[in-house]
Here is the input.
Amino acid sequence: MPIYTPEEYPSVIERIKAKVAQKNIDLGPTVSEVDIIAFERACNTRLPQAYRLFLQEVGDGWNDPETEDISTGSIHRLAEIERKDLSLPMTLTDGWLWEDEEQLSDESFERKLGNQGVELMDEGCGMTYELITAGPCAGEVWSFSDVGVSPCCERQDFLGWFELWLDSDGDPDYFKDYVNGENK
Here is the structure.
């Protein structure tokens, strides 16, 4: 599942709605444009269009671990997401393992990671999935951990990331297609 183009969004949204209904997944209620704008203003950013459409037309987060055939942690609802300044862009375009580097300054982290992104899911053990809102990879979902960051599934936007979650019954391998820049 690639990064979808805006022309593909309507058909992808309809496909996701059908899968959500088929799997009987109870997402949170849709989010109004007013609430999305309030979040954006509080975070000094503009959410990617694919995520905005999902919130407005499909639903907002999921946190029912008892749902049949779904085995993952929750996907945060917009109201649960930390309000932080997201205006500083992430400048990375490929994965970065900082545990291999001897000394890193706060400036080095800030220069590369910017303000990170919108945390969509916390898998525990220091691993999160975040939607990048600023920089060359804006709109993509990346994996953040205590040792590094990388794009998921070799460049996934929110719709692709969520659809893979649906198709895998909540236990996706977001790295199955990942090719590290050194291994290309």
Q: What stands out?
A: Residues 9-22 form the longest helix (14 residues). The chain has five helices and five strands. The radius of gyration is 16 Å.
